[in-house]
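Notes, Module 5: Reading structure tokens.

Key idea: the token line is not a picture. It is a compressed description, and you learn to read it the same way you learned to read a sequence, by spotting repeated patterns. We will look at two proteins. The first is printed below with its tokens.
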Amino acid sequence: MDDRRPGLNPAVAEVRRNVRAHLPAEGTIIVGLSGGADSLALAAAVAFEAPGRGVAVVIDHGLQSGSAEVAAAAARAAEGLGLRARVARVEVPSVGGPEAAARSARYTALRGAAREEGADAVMVAHTLDDQAETVLLGLARGSGAGSLQGMSPTSDFDGIALIRPLLDVRRETTRAACVAEGLTPWDDPHNVDDRYTRVRVRRHILPVMEDELGPGIAEALARTATQLREDAAAFDEMIDETIEDIVEPAEAGIAVSVAALAANPAALRHRIIRHVVASEFHQSLTRTQTVAVARLVTHWSGQGAIDLPGCRARRVAGTIEFTRRE
């Protein structure tokens, strides 16, 4: 399909082109819709590129006065585009940060809707700007290359494909696409509320970086995420090739060869340690915990076992043994 035909707005064409590149060949597509410019532009593109296949799911978090009316208006907008629409009211727990709690509730609802609709894919409207903010927040937290990888265009969502087709599209483009298509997006007041860390990054930090360092900061951060995901994929392949030869069963756990760990560079050694704990005990290690286990390999002086989330690591003869911790 040629998006250069006369009369097609460039912003609309860009959004449609990115959606088309990520469309599953067949089946129902769940579209996460808030009513904001990003998700509304996504919904319009899905309606155009995959007619009859899209179901817009509007999540009402119930966190603001009038949220039910906003959700109903977003559903009507989706139906006007030719999508089926449904509103899902969710309860956001008070435990933990409000952003994380709302995100968890939202994804649970989207996953449930996908299963009810028999859909194999869920599309959400994260943009290049969202990606840049995610990378910058990960950098500020010092949480390692994993968080700096940002969001993947496609990831597994408990057996359902979670697709982010707009990660190469700027937020200003989605708003321009809505204007060109005569769509009126909802402006979430939370998006200008400086109580939220991401909002402060969006409204204050990134603009200052653009002013002081020059334009293109958001694109550079997004490129960094892509490069780190490529590096991580290469490391994962190396681990898959290596790990079967260096691990062996242990009572209530698993053991890894000290000699094999010592022979690998630190980056790969640390990834193997994290992989073993994640796959065997379904737990994540911090950088400090990972390095402490690695010291049983590289700086062994008779130290005792190390308590980790869900397990314990200790050096036994020529292995590092990971066993379940009650």
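Here is the second protein, with the sequence above and the tokens below, as before.
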Amino acid sequence: MSVSSSRAPHLPLLLKCLNGKVVNPALKAFAFAYIYVVAPKIFFKVLKLAKKRELSKGLPAAIATLRNALKPSKFPALAAKLMLQINATEPLIYLFFKRLGYLHKPRRRLFVSTLVAAFLAALMHFPSFQNPGSIHGRQISLDLTLLVATRALDTVVSSALSRAGGSRYASLGDGALFIVSSALIMYSWFYHPERLPPAYRNWITSAASMDDEFISLLRDVKNKKVAYGEKGPGEYLLKDFCERNNQPAEKGSLYLNQPLSCECVHAFLTKNCELHALWRFARGFTFAIKLYGSVNFVMLLLSKDKKNFARKLLRASLNAARSSCFLGTFIALCWYGVCLGRNRILPRLFPKVPRTRWDDTIAAACGCALCGFSCFIDTPQRRKELALFVAPRAVGTVISSEPTPRNLWLERVTFAVSMAILVAFAKKEASSVRGIFGKGLQSVLSLQNFN
């Protein structure tokens, strides 16, 4: 028998192995990432068009979304390329370390091999996703980088705490992370909106239901463009606001009112701060239940398992109500925190400080600091997801988003290191990557173990 004929039977086996451990996972990664990207966009576009009674535009909008996600510069293509290279090069790196006699324990050798393979893959392919986003301010790639980086940091910290026996404090840590992150995000929403992703900023604006005139007033007071007791723009900033609420324009004048009355801040609904907070809660709850109720109901209908439908419907309704209570409380605490700062607490603790001083960032900062405590209404599992969701956006408010060569290089390295950590930890122990992101990493990124 010839040498070539003896090797021939191994070729189909090799091709099958490559398809099973390299090609198929990459295709699966593309498919999962594609669904992950397009499904929420289509759902919310259709929901928005339904509210405007323009459902005829739904199909063209959905087709445009489906086509756009197929571009080589989008996340699905990045996910596929990452998995293709990671799964192709990891066994080679593992074999290389084995031949060198480096890292004698197979499990540790596999961890380092995965780390190196993922780092090199991310370093190579991330620029194709990064550069198109940099044209419009680097927001697209920065959001993904911050998401991956905060998840990687959380994975390292939570794994270290777990080994040290500190996992029982994780729930309080999640709460603290959410409170701090929410404070940074809301402060930026008040005074530095350009630091937030546009879609996220617009969503907060819709949920908070704060009039544009008040936002402009707060920013102008902070930037010293207007001041209490001075004639000029401060006399007229709230003129349209007052007229829209059937009140004389004088009630919104910073010259005649030092400071503005809480009734004016409450949109003339009531003079009582507590009643206003309850009204804001009810309005926030109504806003949220439409969103969470729709999502939970659609997910229930799409479920293949139709058994115990009534019980599942009740559970979905309770989950939607709890999430809506959380958002309603978040909004109410933010508004009430402003009132506590400018009317209820600080003026009484510091009576010698001019009342107008509290409207210069301090009252708004009180609301920002207080709103995050709403997370304790939700379950520990949900609190963890909330904390990990807002943390990347909070980090984004304190770093530069200017697409300079140095920043783009730092972002590239940060993404590569973070992705390497997540993939390596997920292969070692999937549960070490917390939350939905960790559960989805095995399926969305199609990780394969090479033993």
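Summary for the second protein:
- Residues 18-138+402-444 form one domain.
- The chain has a mean pLDDT of 82.
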